[in-house]
Design brief:
The chain is of the alpha+beta class. The protein has a single domain, classed as Pnp Oxidase, Chain A (Roll), CATH 2.30.110.10. The radius of gyration is 14 Å and the shape is globular.
Length: 130
């Protein structure tokens, strides 16, 4: 999990795919955190991505770093723990003008049943599960 976290963190921007009915939706994301041995992402309750993950928790993330890329497949689980929100937002102070722990909009999701692949054109994929 730490290797997946470090890769995504170094990417800065990665892409999150969700489903809206039968239509895939992909958008740039930038938040990633480890809290209580879980990998977390963050969004706002008012955003459509939040509703999409609640209706269908299967998500995929993809990011590129140099000549390698990562694909992460898993299930997003909403965590209402204010401490998880605090931990995430402490890592991203630039979001303080839009989000604050317990504001009714900030949401954090942890990923479970994760299979990640770190790939390149020159090496076999490295598979990480947690």
């Amino acid at each position: 999990m730490n290797e997946v976290y470090e890769f995504l963190k170094q990417c800065g921007t990665y892409y999150l795919a969700t489903m809206e009915g039968d239509q895939p939706r992909v958008r740039p994301f930038g938040t990633v955190d480890i809290y209580k041995d879980r990998l977390y992402i963050q969004t706002g309750k008012v955003k459509s991505v939040s509703e999409q993950m609640k209706k269908n928790p299967k998500v995929e993330l993809c990011g590129m770093l140099g000549d390698k890329w990562i694909r992460v497949a898993g299930e997003a689980v909403l965590d209402d723990d204010i401490e998880a929100q605090k931990h995430m937002l402490e890592s991203y102070p630039s979001l303080s003008n839009m989000y604050s722990p317990g504001d009714g909009n900030t949401e954090v999701f942890y990923l479970k049943n994760v299979t990640a692949q770190i790939c390149s054109f020159t090496h076999e994929p490295k598979v990480i599960k947690f």
